[in-house]
Amino acid sequence: MTRYVIGPDVAIQLAHAEAVIPGVHQVLAPTLLRSQLLSLLYQAVRRGEMEKRDAERRLSYMRGLRIRLLGDRVLQNVAWKIASQLGWPDTFDAEYVALTQLQADAFITLDRQLAHAVKDLVTIAPIEALSGSN
Q1: What whole-number distance in Å separates Cα of residue 115 and Cα of residue 27?
Q2: CATH of the domain at 124
Q3: pLDDT (tens digit, 9 = 90+) per residue, 49-59?
Q4: For the chain, what is the domain count?
């Protein structure tokens, strides 16, 4: 089983496509994913980029996705170190990287700058990896 950490950008893309993730993959994310996803969808509706019913459908998809959400003390300590090491202003992205280091095989993000910043810390995988049966 391949374990992937996904960021909120990937979660939104998966929800938009209503993607089916094969059982050979396990999807992980920090617990903050729920709040980030809710906020991103709310903002998209407020900007007029999406209808509320579409946002609700994407939230419903994510709530039904088999995803393991983690956020313990060890994860937070590692995230703090990563954010400090990279000089980041907060620890949000660092939680995804920390979780990848601690529990997963690779991190999937659509953010090229983030992927580049952490490529020496974790393995980066493309979103298409979730549809394959590696």
Answers
A1: 18
A2: 3.40.50.1010
A3: 999 999 999 99
A4: 1
